[in-house]
Specification:
Elements: E1 2-8, H1 13-18, E2 28-35, E3 38-46, E4 60-61, E5 67-75, H2 78-87, H3 98-108, H4 112-115, E6 118-126, E7 131-136, E8 145-149, E9 153-157, H5 160-166, H6 175-184, E10 200-201, E11 206-211, H7 220-224, E12 229-230, H8 242-260, E13 267-270, H9 275-287, E14 295-300, H10 315-322, E15 327-332, H11 336-350, H12 358-371, E16 376-378, H13 383-386, H14 393-403, H15 409-417, H16 425-436, H17 439-448, H18 476-488, H19 490-502, E17 507-509, H20 515-523, H21 537-542, H22 549-552, H23 564-568, H24 571-586, H25 593-604, H26 611-626
Parallel strand pairs: 13-14, 13-16, 14-15, 16-17
Antiparallel strand pairs: 1-3, 1-9, 2-3, 4-5, 5-6, 6-7, 7-11, 8-9, 8-10, 11-12
Helix pairs in contact: 2-3, 6-26, 8-9, 8-20, 11-12, 11-24, 12-19, 14-15, 14-16, 14-18, 24-26
Length: about 625
């Protein structure tokens, strides 16, 4: 895990790399080349995880000097790849993954990307062909941004802020992205745009070539616009028995965790008390030597209740998860004063606005991990999307059963709504309706009665997502899972995680997004993911022997939540109202006048702000901190 910079004719490449100094406190390296297109500069800030010696520093070149590599990430199967490369005659002088990645590219070219179990944003330079090859891992765990200037310069970086510093990108906001964020809370959208008009994200699971030999520099929009070559796509569902799926999942999890525990620095884990993090801890405890040091588990715990009186404390489940295991619990208790005092810092860390305070809680978790000397943290990100963990996904699973005329439909329906449950008859019924009835038809119907597009929102032109439609040959749940994993949910969560962790130079590793589990998850049929009244059923079944029963078969899902409603009546709400008026003035051309009037009446009455006001204030404060102006 590191910070990288690659540029052609950048105004200030050094400033661009130094803007990511927090990502790599263990060293800095440069490689520079004169090319027909101009000055190529490759920079790297190092966070040493494998082989901390100087021999593994980047940029790294092959012995004859043809290939140069910078990358951010980790190759979990680097030892297996190294063995395969040794059999082909390669000789290694280091014990880390960088040299393996470089040799893999020299040996297999772009075919190497599909062989990797890991996370990466990588830039290779082939001095012989005078070509840059750019690649991101299959899920986009590691970020990569791109910006350019009129075909004269081009740069890639780990964070958008680096491009602001090194490419002198104008501080212009992207209206479409801000509209989607303020209107609905959407982040990291499917179009690879960012909150900055002139900065884009490089799509995941693709590689690109940038030719420099002809003296031309491509436009950055062409690079970010899905013009690369795909090296991975999700598998289709395939018939599989429950026992077979459970057995394969256990095997895949053991492989993923055993690989991700390998590091030359201390490794710990996030522990929420939920199913996913508890599966990881149960697997860690099973694989580690009983005589090893206690495994550090960091938990954010809120001993409070929400406005409905429901306890937000996951303490009983955290304690159950760690009980009897060789683990040591580190608790963090961020309160409203802590969050309000650090919101500006977290905004700077994220680099773009965010929709709620759960992002802040994660920030404090990684800060606590670093304070106790942990440099690598495991986390359960991705499991909800891959295994249908969100309650609304049950409606799509039931719609698939209905479409197949499954005789178990009513039995499964009643099991899902049986108390205790996150679902009611009405909520599940509406979920089935949304999945069965074409979204285009529903929009047309509601438009006919004046209820679409929705009115009263904060923006003049409400962001309208593309209508959901099952892909040809796919079940509804199968398509939904692909959408959530690849574009609509997981990308934003990965951005939050990367920025929060790297703010404290902590590498996060996600076993559920490993090559083995990720590929298997797409093949497992949807009826095994939502079954017998449970979401994520097959995960519960596969790992029930590694979990306390109160976690394995828990039906009420809290998620990673904070007492935001309460905080909005206190210090966090004060922060929102302090910045809301400036935000309204900054974004007035895109905001709804009725919403502005409503908020001013609400504020004058002393009522607490809501989620929408938080988003507007967050976006406005982000603009103040970064100097961004509405384009």
């Amino acid at each position: 895990m590191c910070g990288i910079w690659a540029s052609i004719n950048a105004p200030d490449a050094v400033a661009g790399l130094h803007a990511a100094a927090h990502r790599g406190p263990d060293g800095e390296g440069w490689a520079r080349f004169d090319t027909p297109a101009g000055r190529l500069e490759l920079g790297h800030r190092r966070l040493a995880i494998y082989d901390p010696s100087d021999e593994s520093a980047q940029p790294m070149q092959t012995a004859e000097g043809r290939y140069t590599l910078i990358f951010n990430g980790a190759l979990y199967n680097y030892r297996e790849l190294r063995d395969a490369l040794k059999a082909n005659g390669h000789v290694f002088r280091t014990t880390g993954d960088t040299e393996v990645f470089l040799a893999a590219f020299a040996e297999w070219g772009t075919d190497c990307f599909a062989k990797i179990d890991g996370m990466f944003a990588a830039v290779f330079y082939d001095a012989q062909r005078q070509v840059l090859t750019i690649a991101r891992d299959r899920f986009g765990e590691k970020p990569l941004f791109v910006a350019g200037s009129d075909g004269k310069s081009l740069a890639f970086a780990s964070e958008a802020g680096q491009l602001m510093a090194g490419m002198k990108v104008p501080a212009r906001t992207d209206t479409f992205t801000l509209d989607a964020f303020i209107g609905s809370g959407q982040v990291d959208n499917r179009y690879n745009s960012t909150s900055w008009k002139d900065i884009s994200r490089c799509p995941a699971g693709l590689w690109y070539e940038v030719e420099l030999k002809n003296g031309a520099v491509p436009d950055h929009k062409a690079v970010s616009g899905h013009k690369g070559t795909t090296f991975w796509e999700p598998d289709a569902e395939s018939p599989m028995s429950e026992d077979d799926a459970a057995s394969k999942l256990r095997e895949a999890m053991d492989e993923a965790v055993s690989r991700q525990l390998v590091a030359d620095v201390p490794v710990g884990t996030c522990l929420s008390g939920g199913l996913d993090s508890s599966i990881i801890l149960g697997t860690v405890d099973r694989l580690r030597d009983a005589n090893s040091d206690p495994f550090i588990c960091v938990s954010a715990i809120f001993d409070e209740a929400n406005d409905g009186g429901q306890s937000l404390s996951e303490r009983p489940f955290v304690e159950a998860a760690i009980k009897g295991k060789n683990g040591e619990l580190v608790e963090v208790h961020p309160g409203e004063e802590d969050v309000a005092a650090r919101l500006d810092d977290i905004l700077r860390t994220q680099g773009e606005p965010f929709p709620g305070t759960s992002i802040c809680a994660q920030y404090f978790v990684f800060e606590a991990a670093r304070k106790v000397g942990i440099k690598v943290m495991l986390d359960g990100q991705g499991a909800d999307e891959l295994f249908a963990g969100y309650a609304p996904m049950a409606g799509y699973a039931m719609a698939d059963r209905l479409a197949r005329l499954d005789p178990s439909f009513l039995k499964e329906f009643n099991a899902l709504i049986a108390e205790p449950s996150d679902l009611t008859t009405g909520r599940l019924g509406r979920g089935i309706w949304r999945a069965v009835v074409s979204e285009r038809f529903r929009r047309a119907m509601f438009r006919a009665i004046g209820r679409y597009p929705p009115k009263g929102g904060p923006v003049r032109e409400a962001f309208l997502p593309e209508p959901f439609s099952p892909a040809p040959g796919q079940y509804r749940l199968e398509t939904l899972i692909r959408n959530l994993v690849l574009r609509d949910s997981l990308p934003g969560l990965l951005r939050y995680e990367d920025r929060n962790a790297m703010a404290f130079a902590v590498e996060t590793r996600l076993p559920f997004l490993s090559q083995a589990i990720g590929d298997l998850a797409f093949r497992i049929p949807g009826e095994l993911k939502v079954k017998k009244g449970y979401t994520k059923y097959i995960l519960r079944k596969a790992f029930e022997d590694r979990l306390p029963p109160e976690i394995a078969w828990r039906r009420k899902k809290l998620g990673f939540v904070t007492p935001q409603q309460k905080w909005m009546r206190g210090k966090v709400g004060i922060w929102v109202d302090r910045h809301l008026e400036n935000a309204i003035e900054a974004f007035r051309p895109m905001l709804n006048d009725d919403w502005i009037a409503h908020e001013r009446v609400r504020k004058a009455a002393g009522a607490a702000p809501g989620e929408t006001a938080f988003r507007v204030a967050c976006a406005g404060r982000w603009a103040e901190l970064t100097g961004a102006v509405l384009d």
